[in-house]
Amino acid sequence: MPRRPASATGSPGIPEATIARLPVYLRALYALADRSIATVSSDELAAAAGVNSAKLRKDLSHLGSYGTRGVGYDVEYLVYQVSRELGLTQDWPVVIVGAGNLGRALANYGGFASRGFRIAALLDCDPAVVGTEIAQHTVRSAAEIEDAVSSHGVSIGVIATPAASAQHVCDRLVAAGVTSILNFAPVVLNVPSGVDVRKVDLSIELQILAFHAQRRTVVASSSEQSWQARRARRKTIGEFADSGGADGLDADTGVEAQAVGT
Amino acid sequence: MPRRPASATGSPGIPEATIARLPVYLRALYALADRSIATVSSDELAAAAGVNSAKLRKDLSHLGSYGTRGVGYDVEYLVYQVSRELGLTQDWPVVIVGAGNLGRALANYGGFASRGFRIAALLDCDPAVVGTEIAQHTVRSAAEIEDAVSSHGVSIGVIATPAASAQHVCDRLVAAGVTSILNFAPVVLNVPSGVDVRKVDLSIELQILAFHAQRRTVVASSSEQSWQARRARRKTIGEFADSGGADGLDADTGVEAQAVGT
DNA sequence: ACGACTTTGTGCAAACGTTCACAAGGGCGT
DNA sequence: ACGCCCTTGTGAACGTTTGCACAAAGTCGT
Ligand SMILES: NC(=O)c1ccc[n+]([C@@H]2O[C@H](COP(=O)([O-])OP(=O)(O)OC[C@H]3O[C@@H](n4cnc5c(N)ncnc54)[C@H](O)[C@@H]3O)[C@@H](O)[C@H]2O)c1
Ligand SMILES: NC(=O)c1ccc[n+]([C@@H]2O[C@H](COP(=O)([O-])OP(=O)(O)OC[C@H]3O[C@@H](n4cnc5c(N)ncnc54)[C@H](O)[C@@H]3O)[C@@H](O)[C@H]2O)c1
């Protein structure tokens, strides 16, 4: 979590872990509001958000003492307070770079706009894609990144390009003035301090699930491999990845480059 | 993170935080292997993975004492050990439920198969979609969930349906024998103990970014709203969400249902 | 008007995670 | 064969997060 060591100069300093949960509370609150529920207790809201109620109360206490003892929280009021804390009382223009499978899915995603995030521009470098319409947005050339960012005062960028282009795109976004980046490419992005990067990596999530799935399966079996012996260094790779497939590491890896030899 | 309180009966008990980073290390290691680099020090690998080198060493030490003092780690060997720990020496069949924007993007995603995750079935309930081909997979009817799961021994399921269907789909997956679920729908899923759920929520990531972006912007300005006074309870919602848009909460919320009144 | 009941807000301790700093260990040059 | 130098592995300090448990505070019924 602590990409930037929290140089927090802000108000009281709300814990990162709390910030990460506020959107979940907000979602639960909207669901309650939709059902015309005016008041909710910490127990109920916690259950809806899938967290411990003490944790929820402590989280909310960081925003202030909203909530009435003996009653609970006013749903409407809390929606407003949480939204305000998250900075959702204003609209956030967003640029999406990369209009491939994922970029298109994102552009078509309704939940995007429903929280005040508006697509300011959708960019790609493929001439075959530039100019096409996706979800009421005409795909613009990647050459216009700087223009798109600065002319709309965009501060949030989404990277949905292949891994190989991600760092380059990132650099250009940052140079153009973007300070928050959501990265879908499986690469560790290098950014100057002051820029916030969050990553979403499907592959990592699956691997974490695989670990737990394996744990469940391997109730008992510790047959040690003959590996322990052959520790000699080699220059080739290939006898591993016994996944049966040949395509092993493809478009996924190949970057990461930067600081290995520094 | 601690969805399940880690009833860890397994080996030494590797911390969740470490597990979450292993895939990142693995990616960096593959990149090194591609460049025919045989040995890497903790400093170099840590830089490539974007973490502190002490943390990396501690993480790896949980797997065992691979690595040679004065030299570093054998890339190839470490790839094998990390893969083994994550359970990636075997293939994991996966079912994807929901072949909409996101489901299609996932099916087309190469990084999916490149780590040993194979799509066993792609399911949807829309008759217009069932039967079509997506990335060499024929979309099957959602009615066949149970069959698809049990006939292939699938233990990992991906939910890419709208929020309203997610819990229902989840229940059916679990009933069919799935024990690991990757959920893209913006809902808190309710699962019996023993089932592992991980969620990916784009909207939440953007909201976290918005919070930090706002922090940076609001260097100084604490104009308190007139809200403090009007704490009366109400039954309507609508004057909030001053996002300018009308579409406010749409397909996003509306579920979460379950345990609110429990 | 008051007391019983409900629920918040928080002090505190334990669990977990990160980072520092260094001793132990091993290769490599001489 | 020895000692220098480099890097690992980890003990210990520190910070963060979680969860318990309860006093403070307010509501609601009578
Ligand atoms: N598809 C998925 O489900 C999925 C899931 C997780 C992660 N990812 C990652 O997201 C990224 C995109 O995936 P995808 O499936 O959409 O890939 P894709 O190949 O379908 O789309 C990538 C798009 O980026 C464009 N592009 C390439 N270089 C560019 C540049 N320098 N500037 C602007 N645009 C550029 C390409 O023209 C292409 O249209 C990849 O890094 C992938 O690993 C994808
Ligand atoms: N598109 C995105 O970029 C994106 C990003 C983040 C999260 N999400 C979430 O992912 C989910 C899917 O998004 P999407 O854009 O692909 O939506 P979509 O509407 O394009 O696709 C949903 C698909 O699920 C199918 N479906 C509905 N009920 C089903 C059921 N009971 N069983 C099987 N299939 C069923 C529908 O027929 C449809 O094809 C949504 O919950 C959305 O909030 C989407």
Can you put this structure into words, describing what you see?
The structure is a homodimer of 262-residue chains. Chain A is of the alpha/beta class and 262 residues long. Chain A has helices at 16-34, 42-49, 53-61, 75-86, 101-108, 110-113, 145-152, 163-176, 202-217, and strands spanning 39-40, 73-74, 92-97, 117-124, 133-134, 137-138, 140-141, 156-159, 180-183, 196-199. A 6-stranded parallel sheet of chain A has the order 7-4-3-8-9-10, sandwiched between helices. In chain A, strands 1-2 form a two-stranded antiparallel ribbon. In chain A, helix 8 (163-176) links the parallel strand 8 (156-159) and strand 9 (180-183). In chain A, helix 1 packs across helix 2 (42-49), helix 2 crosses helix 3 (53-61) and helix 7 crosses helix 8. Mean pLDDT of chain A is 83; it is low at 1-10 and 220-262. The interface between A and B is large, with 118 and 117 residues.
In short:
The structure is a homodimer. With about 260 residues, the first copy, chain A, is of the alpha/beta class.
Assembly type: homodimer
Q: In the CATH hierarchy, what is the architecture of the largest domain in chain A at level 2?
A: 3-Layer(aba) Sandwich
User: Largest interface, and how many residues on either side?
Assistant: A-B, 118 and 117 residues
What percent of the residues of chain A sit in helical stretches (DSSP H or I)? 25-40%
Distance between the termini of chain A: 24 Å
* Average pLDDT of chain A: 83
Note the run of SSEs of chain A as H and E: HEHHEHEHHEEEEHEHEEH
Strand order of the largest sheet of chain A: 7-4-3-8-9-10
Q: How many domains make up the coordinates of chain A?
A: 3
Largest sheet of chain A: 6 strands, parallel
Computed structural class of chain A: alpha/beta
Q: What's the number of helices of chain A?
A: 9
